[in-house]
Amino acid sequence: MLLTIKDLSVEFSSMQQTVKALNHVSFSIDQGEIVGIVGESGSGKSVTALTILGLLDNNATIKNGEILYKGRNVLQLHKKEQQSLRGKQIGMIFQEPMTALHPTMRIGDQLAEVIHRHREIAYKEAYRQAVLSLAEVKINEPELVARKYPFELSGGMRQRVVIALAMSAPPDLLIADEPTTALDVTIQHEILKLMKELAEKRGTSIMLITHDLGVVAEVCQRVVVMYAGEVVETGTTDEVLAHPVHPYTRALIGALPDLASPDQPLHAIPGESPDLRNLPSGCVFAPRCDRALPLCREDHPVLEPVPGSRDASTGTHQVACWVR
Ligand SMILES: Nc1ncnc2c1ncn2[C@@H]1O[C@H](COP(=O)(O)OP(=O)(O)OP(=O)(O)O)[C@@H](O)[C@H]1O
Ligand code: NI
Questions:
Q1: Ligand 1 — pocket residues by CB below 6 A?
Q2: Which residue stretches of the chain have pLDDT < 70?
Q3: CATH class (in words) of the domain with range 3-319
């Protein structure tokens, strides 16, 4: 495994209250694998990414767990080592491409600068490779674009540049947090396809954070479904989409726009996610669950292999639900 997260719990203290953002989160990402992390707003997707990257806010405390990257616990690295891990071994892409770009530096220079630093090659050669990397992310007329400033490009073009930057080291793992959310739908598909192609070509793993199960279905081999700071279901994308077990996963699938009958309204999931300052003692989803038993309100279910599932032999399909 390239990345293994074991039993990770993270809390934030703000205004004398404790927000339990992550509770015993465990999952792993294999070499070359594209894994989707899906869940509604506030489920802990970004906090998971920021913990891996060592970028948590100062009011965060890691209460429990470890994050093994190539067998080393990144939570025990010094600031300097974490910094060199970021960018060089683990690339990052966030929702808003402008935040990753220097506003007053030409595209080619930004890329060349990073390539020069990471690959330790002369600047002139780095610039030549920068132009090549623009061509690799399917930017037409790369020499011309290299001489432009970020504001001169469209949102989709900027995100392509950010992908080129993030892949320049080149990293073994790319963490992409809602990389296409700010883009319009046709551009979204192009960017996802590009990320998938590049990852396959280079053997890069991707942790793709999204609230959109449709995105997961399009590019991810495996999926981790999060709810209120917990992993509630995980497995191969095919298995989880075809045989979802957790009522929350089922609800997410039910909320997908039905391509066969586009006139159907979207099914929103009724109810609200729990208050992370005051979590229920039983299952976190029980208050919204239409199949909840008395047991579900009392006892907290943990992730366990789904009995009888196609993947049961390898134990990859797992669910945290009493009604499985
Ligand atoms: N610095 C912080 N201080 C206090 N609470 C925080 C802080 N950062 C995150 N949180 C809380 O942690 C929880 C998880 O947040 P996170 O950003 O991981 O959600 P998410 O799944 O990425 O949601 P979204 O889809 O909206 O990006 C939220 O309730 C959020 O309010
Ligand atoms: Ni987020």
A1: 12, 14, 19, 21, 39, 41-47, 57, 59, 211, 276
A2: 258-267, 310-315
A3: alpha beta
